[in-house]
Amino acid sequence: MSADITDDAAVLAPPAEPQDRSPVAVPPGPRPARRLAGLARRAPEWLVTAGAGVLAALLGAIAQWRGTFFFYVGDNPESFIPVWHEVGAALREGRWLVFDPTAWTGGNLVGEAAYGVFNPVTLANTVVISFFDDLSLAAATVMVEFLAILAMGTFLLAREYGAGRVPAVLVAVAIPFSGFTLWYEASGWPAGLMAFTWVTHFWWSARRHARGRLIPLVPFLFGFLAMTTGNPYAALGLVVVLGAIGVELLLQRRFARLAHLTVMGACVGLVALLVFLPLLGTSSVSARQQLANLANDTFLVPDLGDLAGASSPTYLPSITNWNGALLEQLPSTYLAWFVLPLLAWLRWGALRGRAASLTSLGVVGGAYLLATLGPSNLWLFRWPVRLIEYLYLAVAVIFAVALSAGLATDRVRFRALASGVIVVLGGYLAWAVQPGQYRVHATGVVVVAVLVALAVLAGHRRGMAALGAVVVVGTAGILTLQTSVFPPIPEGQTPHYPPYDLSDMTAGTAGYEGTVLQLARLDGVTTGQKRAGELLFGNLPRATGVESVASYSGIGFLEFNERLCIDYRGVTCPEAFDRLFAPTGEGVPVRLIDALRVSTLVIQRSLLPEAAQDTPQSGWRVLDRTPVRTVWVREQPLAGEGRVSWASPGVEVLADSASPRRESVRYRADGPGRVVFARLAWPGYTATVDGRPVDVDDGPAGLVTVDVPAGTGTLQLRHTTPGLQPGVLAASGAAAAVLVQSGLWLWQRRRSQARRGTVQEVVLGA
Fold this sequence. Notes:
The protein is of the alpha+beta class. The chain contains 27 helices and 19 strands. The strands form 5 sheets. A 5-stranded mixed β-sheet has the order 5-4-8-10-9. Strands 12-13-19-15-16 form a 5-stranded antiparallel β-sheet, with no helix packed on it. A hairpin with a 3-residue loop joins strand 9 (620-625) and strand 10 (629-634). The longest helix has 42 residues, at 724-765. It is globular and about 95 Å long.
């Protein structure tokens, strides 16, 4: 068993440096080229890995430079960056923010899963974000960081499968700037980028462990980082990678190594309980349960034609998009300008003897190819274009391995013609989908054609290092072109940028008191109004310190959202105003706005022109009135820190103190009564009166309601996230198991080495 763990079978272990001994990789030529190639060979592996990350960071700066808000669109400003700013500020104060009733539907951070509150790297980045006043710059800093980490993981993965250093660097720099990864994940879906990044590192470390070269603790740690991003595509990626490597080990009959891989993978799987049990625990009240289905509405579903345009930097696929659009405005299916054109120059025969060592790579690529072309909804996995980056990662690694044998030097004219046809065909496909942008497509064809010619010429005359230099410079040039022309801005229109300056937004919310509810829709809201803090949506109010009812939520709270007709971004309907000033219902006679303990009401004039202009309701006064909004505040501010909002007649609240997860209410009741809290009834609430359990109900509008007995007593309300305790135990047990496994692995490795040393002594003695 021990020998099977540590012995590197030739069929699994890739060649260490296939390009270094190739006459094609370092041909006779000028001394500078030979010196450059020699330097690349002699540099430590860690230094080259770090260099790939630095190159990616520099390229990421191009995207930020071309558009200040490149990394600050979609969910970044609406959801992630403001919440991470809040979480980081809390950590600096010594608080770990995982449950916040003041954020209402957006306050169950553990239940949301996607904010990564268990991920140490994410938490460290929240602290970094909390120091920024410019949220767009904070987003760029973290996104570029992960693009660099992704580049390093891609380099290591390509090297693990036997790619030479230069080819590995080329794909390492290309993958972070492929279409979906850059234009969707890095720009607005950071949890997806983080998941993809850590899955890439897990893939590298898991396969290296499968070859007996890495302690199982390392892939477990990367698997933990991937799983705790809270992104379900990370869990899917881990399963696919483990299955693919397992198939490779089975074919090679490496059963001991497969056993180690299985144990490590099972431990990573246990971490999923920590992350996703709380999400499942909220399903009875959340909107997430409605997303689990099998259907195809063609939304963000790419096809084979989109994959054929993967090396055309101006190809914009015709896939169903937001607001019913049928044409994409971003190069979401782009891979890299050089991959398809250079296929004609690769020495594919060099891979014939390496098929066995590339089995897992082929399995991952094949699985993700099928998934990318699959239906729009497959259980909780929506929008197949999200999977294209995993497919492209496998394709890029195969490309790097093939390129490591050097460029072919025979049949030059035929290969050049084939490359030209591929470039022109890519340009044609781009034009055919969106012919109105023919100037952009023509520019793309010319630029790619020139770059491909230069790359081939440099590779033949100066070696692999020179080819690599052309490809990296070309990637920077293509990125500059793409970020200059996409997304296209119609004539006469100005780009719409989200609010980013916390100082300006905070100034716009000055005077707000207590819990704030904004009644507004996005239609007609200008950039200036958002930046001035007059109207803020999603989680942006939270970053300014405002306790906003209308926050962003990926899971929602169905009963509450329907009662106030609030969507996941905090957008409301006009009917919400009348519902607020109507009785709460279900035996609770007070107005809903009082049951919510709202102290500040922001009314968008275009949504509710009469209410914004009229005299405030009884008990309210006007704080501010502008052409955009009217702000009401209570004439008598609500006293106390507690969240009790109503008690039935005969029940007197004597004292009320609250923290996010606990609330203590001292009361006196003439008879049995009810107490309503301005808290959403998330699963996990329990209550006792003087130590005796009492029922907690999901009351009107989803508010926590507790029945109390007569007499004087102390009501203790507590919230414990469902599934969190077993999840912590499972993750802790997994970590302990991996530590034991790692100790066993090291012992077996040393024992095997000692045996080989004894055999060598006997042979030499003979």
